Amino acid sequence: MSTFNMDAISPEFELTDAELHLYSRQILLDDWDIDAQERLKFSNVCIVGCGGIGCALAELLARAGVGKITLIDPDTIEMSNLQRQLAFTPQDLGLYKAEILAKRLGQINPNVQVEYINQALTAENAVSVIRHQDLVLDGCDQFATRYLVNQRCVELNVPLLSASAIGLQGQLFMLEGDSACYACLFPPENQADESLRCADSGVLATTPNVMASLQAHHALLYLGLGLMPLRQKLLLWDGLSFKQRILAFEKDTDCPICQAR
């Protein structure tokens, strides 16, 4: 794990004058205040996947003032990524996504502490990465990683916001406390097709960025105000029709992840 060029978060609880000015448009909101902004400042989040969703998600959270962001992704930047992954330019080809994204966040908001891990999330390192987070944000494009994140968040009682995007469609749901988990909603035995990825099925440039914005918005509501509108609910977004649905779902009594809890 590496830390990029960041000063430690100020030990004082109050926001600095510079931070008050930077976040003034949020603090002016009727439903937001300085207390909510300070809760953001002292929040730790982990973003799993620094691709189409992760790039926009991380930037929005950094601009909003989330205090510490941990990025994890083993991939390097390819030409095809530039179509939708907003943090990268042609000069970044061949470099690690997590590291380049961390540098960009440092340029955007030096008040935020950013750590990056140029490795895959695995059964061996997942606990150490997730254990001390206030919220995990999954934006990866591999089912195996998504189920691993879900399992570790359940075991460690860490809230999870999981987003996905493919083609012109996206999904978003939240796990928190004793709510139903991702495996309740999508049993692993029904999700064995790893070809359902952007690299194989395609994705419009805007789709992952729409889902990243929705995921970031929900994250801010949770971290700043303690709100959980998608707890045990699935948001479905259709970019062709512009229809959006929210479906409630229940625990699967046979889910091995929830039974292990």
TrEMBL record:
The THIF-type NAD/FAD binding fold domain, residue ranges: 23-256
Pfam families registered for this protein in UniProt: ThiF
Gene Ontology terms: cellular component: cytosol
CDD domains linked: ThiF_MoeB_HesA_family
Family of this protein: Belongs to the HesA/MoeB/ThiF family.
Annotated source species: Acinetobacter pseudolwoffii
Protein name as catalogued: THIF-type NAD/FAD binding fold domain-containing protein
One annotated GO molecular function: nucleotidyltransferase activity
